[in-house]
Each structure stands twice: as structure tokens, then as C-alpha cells.
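When time allows, look over one protein, given below as sequence and C-alpha cells. The question is which stretches look regular and which look disordered:
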Amino acid sequence: MDISDDGRKLDSEWVEVGNNVCGVLLGCRDASAVAQYFLRAGWSSRSSSWRSYEVETDWCQLEVVPVEDPNVLLNGVVDPQRFDELDDLVRRFGLRYSLELYEADGALVRESQA
């Protein structure tokens, strides 16, 4: 997979925020392919382990991790005001998924799935 630092980096206001978004892409085995979707949307992407990737833009940073089942996990931080934008982007990938947004105290704020 091509790796690109051409996209925008996460704004400093979100760097210290703990993870507040998680999700799963169902029936998808390849984290590299998922990272490519984000890359084509203008995000930056870099390898974070042998099979995992980190993707980011100025309002969101996600770890893209394949798991044993044919699924890929998403885990990271998103500007809560832009959760719908993340949801729309993932929806355009054409995969079955679920996304969840949490408050700092761990309370579920929103969820979306397709």
C-alpha cells in the first residue's frame, strides 16, 4: 500500500483527547485496502505495524486494525462536531460498518451503522 503524508495532520486541540470513536468494518479483511479508501479521500496514511495503519486528517485520526474475523477495527479520535462527516465517508466505502462516538467519561453519545 502506498503511504502518504500529503494529507493534513490532526489539529493540536485533538492530540490530547483520548479515543472517542470506534467502529468495525464488517466482512473486510484488509486494513491496507481500508487505508487506501482514506488516502483517496485526501487523508494521510502510514503503517503502524505489520498489518495495521494509521490514517488522519486535521479533524480525525484512526488506527485501522485487521482482526481474526473478517473484520477491520477503527479506533481513534474525531472532532465530535464532524462525526457525521466521518460516517458519510465510511458509508461511501460501500462496506457494512458500525461507528460509535463517546464522551470523555466513556458514555456513548452516538452510533451509526450501515
Q: What stands out?
A: The CA atoms of residues 48 and 114 lie 27 Å apart. The domain at 12-113 is CATH 3.30.310.180 (TATA-Binding Protein). The two ends are 26 Å apart (CA to CA).
